[in-house]
Design a protein that fits this description.
By secondary structure, the chain is α/β, with parallel strands linked by helices. It has one domain: Rossmann fold (3-Layer(aba) Sandwich), CATH 3.40.50. The chain is 35% helix and 17% strand. The chain is globular. The relative contact order is 0.15.
């Protein structure tokens, strides 16, 4: 595993990791975590195997990153701002979710393309990490330098019922009161989230619209996205990204080549972490990528 620090347009240092250096132009995948975690999310399975070591076999141990590498893909892993080995928020409320979209995403994509000499590149994002890539594509539309996008458990901005609206409002209030969302204490993940990053993401979903601070309609803008798109949902993901909410995104994306794959029995985190995903979900993602790229 090799890592490098790269700078965004607003001067934030991001950590970008590569599992193995290749010089043969093989297709590359950029793995982007969601809230409450970091690049290590892709390196481990639910039983704790994997890590920073060997690649393992297609059916062997290790996380999704190792699985994709063993399938012949050039695997890159990102740490978004305030996560992993990237810079931490300099002051309370300094960053929003749109900083992931407008600053982190294009910086990461440009660096991977530079180091792979423009080889075909797919963005693979979990949850909000998938949304960040899609929102950026909505901005750049036809100029997108990606060959494919895969999201795992990325929901559309569905209107929430009373219980979920209350939970979302409580999350926003708690985050702003503390200056962060205490994910570690609540066992939501291994990274506390910066207050305004999680608050903006939650507000988008409470309002039922992905609207930028300048008024740009990110969800509406998905109609201009022509990059091949695979959305993946788990039937056991009943709270964060149910299949119906993931279908909203697939339906909105304008690509002629798009698909929603619904994986039986998988939870939100289980799409990436569970042993069951190794048997069904990950092979389906690899097959789609190889056919597309």
């Amino acid at each position: 595993m090799t890592a490098r620090l790269i700078s965004t347009p607003d001067g934030v240092e991001l950590a970008l990791h590569r599992m193995r250096a290749y010089r043969d132009g093989r297709p590359a995948v950029l793995l982007v975590h969601g809230a409450f975690t970091n690049h290590r999310f892709w390196l481990h399975s639910e039983d704790g195997t994997g890590g920073m070591g060997g690649m393992g076999g297609m059916g062997g141990m290790g996380g999704m990153a190792h699985f994709l590498g063993a399938a012949g893909l050039d695997v890159w892993l990102a740490d978004l701002r305030h996560h992993g080995e990237s810079a931490r928020e300099p002051r309370r409320g300094a960053w929003t979710f749109e900083d992931w979209v407008l600053n982190d995403t294009p910086t990461l994509v440009a660096r991977v393309r530079e180091e792979t000499d423009g080889a075909p590149l797919a963005w693979i994002g979990h949850s909000a990490g998938g949304a960040a890539g899609l929102c950026w594509l909505a901005r750049v539309a036809a100029a997108a330098p990606l060959a494919a996008v895969v999201t795992l458990g990325t929901p559309g901005p569905r209107r929430l019922g009373p219980v979920r609206r209350t939970l979302a409002a409580s999350t926003i209030a708690l985050s702003r009161a503390l200056g962060r969302f205490p994910a570690r204490a609540l066992r939501f993940g291994n990274e506390d989230e910066a207050a305004e990053i999680i608050a903006e993401w939650m507000e988008w979903n409470v309002r039922g619209a992905w609207l930028g601070m300048d008024g740009f309609d990110y969800f509406g803008g998905l109609a201009a996205v022509s990059v091949p798109y695979l959305g993946v949902a788990g039937t056991a993901d009943r709270i964060f990204a149910p299949p119906a909410a993931c279908r909203q995104v697939v339906d909105r994306v304008g690509s002629r080549r798009k698909l929603l794959a619904v994986e039986p029995g998988l939870t939100h985190r289980g799409l990436v972490l569970s042993d069951r995903a190794r048997q069904s979900c990950w092979p389906n993602v690899v097959a789609w990528l190889k056919e597309t790229l």
